[in-house]
């Protein structure tokens, strides 16, 4: 299978920011309407792409933004849970995804189909595939079966590499040096300096999620810092 690396939808992301608009189950913002509003807001702020999960979220976001939409489905939290089946991938395309993000590892999938089957089905539906990888081996495997681009999304989460404090720049550089398709940096990009470091390491585009779209985590960072500072400055707190 041949990757479609010259596709205009993928080309629109080159050197640009992609924002992951996702909320965790049970959180106040876990609503397609809210995620669609977040997507609109970050596009107004300059995002050139949106990454979103869940069919209803994709359906809500698609009519409201005209940038590249990377779609996925999450099922569970162990093993292959990012767009784990061929049917899930096709549902993402039907919901409006330009690029479908899938697990790019060699692990068994719940429908028993190989990654190649998912990629072939997505290509037949005129969409592209982003393979979320945790190692160079994952990326090379995904590309061999037709992935159009690869991401560092799973770095530190498959057992192949330790979890890095920030973005896994070492893996990013390794992928850039050894693969023939665009490499998208994703995972633990916490500030603009991290994002720029990813571009400087050769990333085709950079995905930022929690640092932009997760107010609970952002607020906790501020609250914890203030609480820590207050304890240090309070003489009573040192006794």
Report what the structure shows.
- The chain has 239 residues and is an alpha/beta fold.
- The protein has a single domain (8-231), classed as Aldolase class I (TIM Barrel, Alpha-Beta Barrel).
- The protein has helices spanning 8-11, 32-44, 55-61, 86-94, 115-124, 136-144, 169-178, 192-200, 210-213, 215-233; strands spanning 17-20, 49-53, 68-72, 99-103, 128-132, 149-151, 183-186, 205-208.
- The chain has an eight-stranded parallel barrel with strand order 1-2-3-4-5-6-7-8, surrounded by seven helices.
- α6 (136-144) links the parallel β5 (128-132) and β6 (149-151).
- The longest helix is centred in the last third of the chain and has 19 residues, at 215-233.
- The relative contact order is 0.14.
Q: What's the CATH architecture name?
A: Alpha-Beta Barrel
Radius of gyration: 18 Å
DSSP helical segment count: 10
What is the total domain count? 1
Please trace the helix and strand order, writing H or E for each element.
HEHEHEHEHEHEHEHEHH
Strand fraction: 5-15%
Shape type = globular
Percentage of residues in helical conformation: 25-40%
CATH homologous superfamily (4th level) name: Aldolase class I
InterPro entries: Aldolase_TIM, NanE, RibuloseP-bd_barrel
Protein name: Putative N-acetylmannosamine-6-phosphate 2-epimerase
Family: Belongs to the NanE family.
Pathway: Amino-sugar metabolism; N-acetylneuraminate degradation; D-fructose 6-phosphate from N-acetylneuraminate: step 3/5
């Amino acid at each position: 299978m041949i990757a479609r690396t010259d596709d205009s939808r993928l080309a629109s992301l080159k050197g640009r920011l992609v924002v992951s608009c996702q909320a965790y189950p049970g959180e106040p913002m876990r609503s397609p309407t809210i995620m669609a509003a977040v997507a609109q807001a970050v596009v107004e702020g300059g995002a050139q792409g949106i990454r979103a999960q869940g069919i209803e979220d994709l359906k809500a976001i698609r009519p409201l933004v005209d940038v590249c939409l990377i779609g996925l489905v999450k099922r569970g939290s162990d093993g292959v849970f990012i767009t784990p089946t061929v049917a899930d991938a096709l549902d993402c395309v039907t919901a409006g995804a330009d690029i479908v993000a899938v697990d790019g590892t060699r692990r068994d999938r719940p429908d028993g189909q190989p990654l190649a089957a998912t990629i072939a089905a997505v290509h037949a539906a005129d969409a592209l595939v982003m393979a979320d990888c945790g190692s160079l081996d994952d990326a090379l495997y995904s590309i061999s079966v037709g992935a159009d681009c690869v991401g560092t999304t799973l770095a530190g989460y498959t057992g192949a590499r330790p979890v890095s404090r920030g973005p896994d720049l070492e893996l990013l550089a390794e992928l850039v040096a050894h693969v023939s398709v665009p490499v998208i940096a994703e995972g633990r990009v916490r500030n603009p300096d991290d994002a720029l470091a990813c571009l400087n390491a050769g990333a085709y585009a950079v995905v930022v999620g929690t640092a932009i779209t997760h107010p609970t985590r952002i607020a906790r960072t501020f609250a914890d810092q203030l609480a820590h500072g207050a304890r240090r400055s309070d003489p009573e707190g040192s006794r």
